[in-house]
Amino acid sequence: MAIIGVSGRLHGSPAVLRALNKAIKEIEGDLSDGFDRALAYARRKAIQKTPKEYGDLRKSIKVDKSKSTRQLTGRVYSTYPTAPLVHEAKGLWVGKQIRRRSMKGNYWDPSGEPKFLEKAFTENHKYILLLISKRAKR
Fold first, then answer.
1. How far apart are the first and last CA of the chain?
2. What is the pLDDT of residues 2-33, one digit of tens each?
3. What tens digit of pLDDT does each residue of 42-94 get?
4. Is residue 85 a contact partner of residue 57, using CB atoms and an 8 Å limit?
5. 63 φ, ψ to 5°?
6. DSSP string spanning 57-108?
7. What is the three-class DSSP state of 114?
8. Residue 126 vs residues 31, 57, 122, 133: alpha-carbon distances, Å
9. Would residue 69 be called left, alpha or beta, if left means φ above 0 and alpha means ψ between -120 and 50 degrees?
10. How many angstroms separate the CA atoms of 46 and 73, rounded?
11. 3-state secondary structure of 3
C-alpha cells in the first residue's frame, strides 16, 4: 500500500513504489509515443497541403518535440527561407492553372494551400487527439 503524505511524497513498501514508478513510466512512454505519431501525422498533412515547385519547401518541413517535467510540446515547422511568405500568402491563385516561370507546376497546385502548416492541425485536430488518446488508453 502506498500513502501520500502531507509533503506530497509517496510512502510505502519498496515493491509498491517500484511498481508505481514502472506504471508511471509506461504511461509517459505511451503518451510520448502517441504524441510522436500525432506530430508525424500533422507533418504528413502539412506536406500534402504545401505548394510544390522544386519540392524544397516540402522537404524542409520538420518536427520538433521537447519534454519538460510537466508537459510535452511539439511543433511542425519549415526551415526554408521563403516558407513564411508562402505560408502567409493570400492564395489568390489557388485552383487557377497559372504556370510558374520555371515551368514546374502551377503556382498553387490542387493540393497546395496557404497556411499549410496551420491547416495541418486545425483541419485534423480531432484525429490528432484520437492518435494521442489511443496510445494513452493502452
1. 24
2. 444 444 566 667 887 788 888 878 888 888 88
3. 999 999 888 876 688 899 999 999 888 778 889 999 999 988 888 888 766 66
4. no
5. -120, 140
6. HHHTEEEEEEE-SS-EEEEEEE--TTHHHHHT---TTTTS-PBPTT-SSBSS
7. coil
8. 16, 26, 9, 10
9. alpha
10. 18
11. strand
Q: Are the beta carbons of 58 and 50 closer than 8 angstroms?
A: yes
Name the grid cell of 96: 487557377
Nearest to 53 by CA among 86, 6, 95: 86
For the full predicted model, state whether its pTM sits above 0.70. Answer: yes
**The C-alpha cell that represents 52 in the structure block:** 510544390
Higher pLDDT, 99 or 6: 99
DSSP 52: -
Cβ neighbours, 10 Å, residue 89: 19
